[in-house]
Amino acid sequence: MIENVDYLVVGAGSAGCLLANRLSADSRHQVALLEAGGRDWNPLIRIPLMAGLLYFMPSLNWGYQTEAQPGMAGRRIVWPRGKVLGGCTAINGMMHIRGHREDYDRWAARGLSGWSYRDVLPYFKAFEKNLGYPESDPYHGRNGEFFTAKAKGEHPLYHAWLEAAAQAGFRRNPDFNGADQEGVGFYDFNICNGRRVTAADAFLKPIRDRRNLHVITNATVERLVFEGRRCIGADVRHGGKVHRVRAHREVVLSAGAVNSPQILQLSGIGDAQYLKSLGIPVVVDSPDVGQNLQDHLGVYVQYRCLQTNTLYALMRPDRAILAGLRALLFGTGPAASVPLEAGGFLKTRPELPIPDVHVTVVPGLSLATTRIGQMEHGFLTNVYQLRPESRGYVRIRSADPKEKPEIQPNYLSAEADLRCLRDGVRLVRRIVSNAALDAFRGAEISPGEHVVSDQAIDEWVRKTANTIFHPVGTCRMGADERSVVDERLRVRGVEGLRVADASVMPDIIGGNTSVPTMMIAERAAAFILEKPL
């Protein structure tokens, strides 16, 4: 275990891998990147179709659960979080989405100078390697490390669904990361030659020969170390022992929306009264640490399928094994893509200024159905609310770093969130009812054709809605003194410490969160090195 570095980055996920790459580009800087999980050696990580199963593999996962949710029939929701080199990019759905330009303009309107869409677009482009657009395209980068490509969309269900959406009055959109997000079409994915591209693949593997970069796995930060108000390093458990790693310049937490606030609280930065009750010495009274938790919540509208080319065809063991081997060895076949290739960003009400739901069609039934043994051909449309109003928190239970924190999202505590999902169900039904899907559409499995009233749909939503795996906001960035970090991602009240991950988002963005998290890391590197793009 290295004992002295210039920069210590905690967490090798979407943000940490990119940040370690940028900070170690200057050979004069000694950089340590700590990851609590192991190396990404599991071959299943490479196979795109395995994404849904990787969520539930204990060897790759923190295995979190929420508290019982009053707004969701008292259910505890499983929260997969990547615990492996690459973090959540090693287990996620690989969809490359930035969010809506208004998301970032809203951040800037909060007083966060330098975070408007115009400001952050160059940082999105900096790490993108997308050869599917001309060099003159103003919205995409070609020279970054993170490979991105348009889905091939070979399954006929995708095309039928998109035509049905057009029949319902929704326009086609060739680029959800371009001039406008609204519409339906095919998504971009971080899949290269039929294999998953993780943050570790993109940002660490090409620079593995840098002698000034030390990537240390199975290393858990128990608490940060301070001299006065300056963060000078961290106590790290590795190999059965606790080591003190000193950082002469800065420590950066990139541990995510659960672990970054957990580490701050364990280190004495949080609500002073609560920390004292746990016997933790207070460094900074910062009550907003762990607050402002937001997550995307979605539901599956499922139908029987009249065709026999759905994912159910892969439920036969011999076919599944063959598909996996084809993807692993040759990057081809049905397992070489993720079955989420088409959908869009839509408004549930025409008067809305921007889309409020994200919808995705899948040529198969839900993960839960697949895990217990899917017994029939079917397809679904997933719909989730883009900007929920419900807010929750993450809070440590004790001073023991090995104890999992309390996760309370307060799902559906805001009435507007329930209305959005209810309207989303009706929007999906309107699309699927069109003639373009007549050759595919069988009976509605879920919610079921008898579920039509507001009350009935709401009850079904509460019983079946689930996370879309996008928690953010627990180390809120803000211009106000109560915010956890300032607009340059510095933790308020101390020196030498920043947070750079999804936890700093003041409001959740309208889309998948891994790519915006990389943008935040790109911005953090520019702040730390004082080298703006």
What descriptive keywords fit this protein?
alpha+beta; 27 strands; seven-stranded mixed sheet; 533 residues
Q: How would you characterize this protein structure?
A:
This protein is α+β, with helices and mostly antiparallel strands. It is built from 13 helices and 27 strands. The strands form eight sheets. Strands 1, 2, 12, 13, 14, 15 and 27 form a seven-stranded mixed β-sheet that branches. Strands 8, 19, 20, 21, 22, 25 and 26 form a seven-stranded antiparallel β-sheet that branches. β13 and β14 (230-238) form a beta hairpin. The model has no long low-confidence stretch (mean pLDDT 95).
Short characterization:
With 533 residues, the protein is of the alpha+beta class. The chain has helices at 14-23, 51-54, 101-109, 117-127, 156-167, 199-203, 256-266, 272-277, 317-330, 367-373, 415-432, 454-464, 514-529, and strands at residues 4-10, 31-34, 64-65, 78-79, 128-129, 146-147, 149-150, 183-186, 188-189, 191-192, 195-196, 213-216, 219-227, 230-238, 241-253, 269-270, 284-285, 291-293, 297-305, 342-346, 357-362, 378-385, 392-395, 406-408, 441-446, 466-467, 497-499.
